[in-house]
Design a protein that fits this description.
This protein has 241 residues and is an all-beta fold. 0% of the residues lie in helices and 39% in strands. The strands form 5 sheets. Strands 3-4-5-6 form a 4-stranded antiparallel sheet, with no helix packed on it. A 4-stranded antiparallel sheet has the order 7-8-9-10, with no helix packed on it. A hairpin with a 7-residue loop joins strand 15 and strand 16. It is globular.
Length: 241
């Protein structure tokens, strides 16, 4: 309740065993999910700044949260800068992740798939003040997407009953849809006839071993490994608008 559904910032660097509260911030009260990075992308005005990408139910907000100074008695971080706030044909802006080069953001909308096929929105974020929706990857799979994370040239999407879907990001830089390269079915009983909230809720893809941790609501923690495939790195050039 302290931050009324907005960002609740904690200091975990000073004393990791005893994290302390820093302050609050929100653009329109509720922030469902967030990714924060030390920015090293093409918008050089913000190199080295702490930039956060906020998924706020009905919009994507990009903020500079480098200065966390709190003034007054309401715990609000008053020096946080709202760089942009973008809407689209949303149902429920749930979560997203930025590419390693900080030039593309992939967004999943958990409400969109309740009545339609799974989809991923693709934003060009080479300008943090003016992100542009450059495409949408739609599939023919009846499923709800949930959380996705990016490593190298691939996004790893936890899509409930259709399992963990691994997709190449490289086509996005050319204005094309994501390309699926692998998947793991963690809910084989799904008929694919209607959306359900069963299956994979999230995953962890950053283990040094290369193993992928998949959180199945029915079967618990699953440890899987991709079969060898040709590695496709994300391009170094800017995306096509």
């Amino acid at each position: 309740d302290r931050c009324l559904g907005g960002i609740y910032a904690m200091d975990v660097a000073t004393d990791p065993l005893n994290p302390t509260f820093v302050g609050c911030w929100s653009v329109d009260e509720y922030v469902h999910d967030i990714q924060c990075v030390v920015y090293s992308g093409p918008d050089t005005e913000f190199t080295g700044r702490e930039i956060c990408f906020c998924f706020d139910e009905n919009s994507l907000a990009i903020i500079d949260i480098t200065d966390k100074n709190v003034t007054g008695g309401n715990s609000e971080m008053t020096n946080v800068q709202l760089l942009s706030n973008v809407t689209y044909d949303f149902e429920y802006t749930h979560q997203g992740w930025v590419t390693d080069d900080h030039s593309i953001l992939l967004l999943d909308d958990e409400g969109y798939e309740i009545k339609q096929f799974s989809a991923t929105w693709q934003f060009d974020i080479t300008s943090l003040r003016a992100p542009v929706l450059i495409g949408k990857t739609e599939t023919d799979i009846v499923t709800i997407d949930h959380n996705q994370y990016i490593k190298g040239g691939f996004t790893y999407q936890s899509n409930y009953a259709s399992g963990l879907r691994i997709k190449s990001i490289a086509p996005v830089y050319k204005g094309k849809p994501l390309k699926e390269v692998a998947y793991f079915d963690a809910f084989p009983g799904d008929t694919g006839e209607e959306t359900t909230w069963d299956g994979v809720w999230s995953s962890y893809i950053y283990l040094p071993s290369g193993n992928l941790l998949v959180g199945s609501q029915e079967y618990g923690l699953l440890v899987v490994r991709e079969q060898p495939r040709e590695e496709t790195s994300a391009p170094t050039s800017s995306p096509s608008r």
